[in-house]
Design brief:
With 101 residues, the protein is α+β, with helices and mostly antiparallel strands. It has a single domain, classed as RelE-like (YaeB-like fold), CATH 3.30.2310.20. Helix content is 44%, strand content 25%. The chain contains three helices and four strands. It has a four-stranded mixed beta sheet with strand order 1-4-3-2. Strand 2 and strand 3 form a beta hairpin. Helix 1 runs antiparallel to helix 2. The chain is globular, with a radius of gyration of 13 Å.
């Protein structure tokens, strides 16, 4: 089955903030981060149900090389990226976003 990937506005803001932080710390590192996120999203698109279901149907994919996770939902033929968050962020932020859907 072919899935369409939708990156939510909050996830886009997460990506912009992380890119800026990495790029400010070392030129080119922000692009490396985006490359790894893209690889993660491609993996999710090919295998959307490989990760176990967690809070309210969400799933999480850990990004290689960076301490970030992609939080997503699988609904019918859509993969909805809700957040791209640092692994040490409080779980309350993720739950708050999910509860606001």
């Amino acid at each position: 089955m072919k899935y369409s990937v939708i990156v939510g506005p909050e996830a886009e803001e997460d990506l912009k903030a992380a890119f800026s932080w990495y790029e400010d710390n070392r030129k080119g590192l922000g692009y490396d981060f985006l490359f790894q996120v893209d690889a993660g999203i491609n993996f999710i698109e090919r295998n959307p149900e490989i990760h176990p279901i967690e809070y309210k149907g969400t799933r999480k994919h850990l990004i290689k090389r960076f301490p970030y996770k992609i939080i997503y939902l699988v609904e019918e033929e859509k993969i909805i990226i809700l957040a791209v968050l640092h692994g040490r962020r409080k779980p309350d932020l993720t739950k708050k976003r999910i509860d606001n859907i």
